[in-house]
Write a structure and sequence with these properties.
two-stranded antiparallel ribbon; alpha+beta
């Protein structure tokens, strides 16, 4: 797993990223497993957003 410091570094790198407004209805947490055929992504959890 990546360290919180790695997350902070990524946030700093993209701090000036900008996009248009869009609605987010849910967050999905994925796990990535590397295989010789490529990455396999497994949905671990879904977090519906309200409001």
């Amino acid at each position: 797993p990546r360290s919180p410091a790695g997350i902070d570094k990524a946030l700093q790198k993209y701090r000036d990223f900008s996009t248009g407004v869009f609605a987010v209805r849910e967050l999905i947490l994925f796990q990535s497993n590397l295989t010789p055929q490529g990455a396999l992504y497994t949905r671990l959890a879904t977090f519906p957003l309200e409001g």
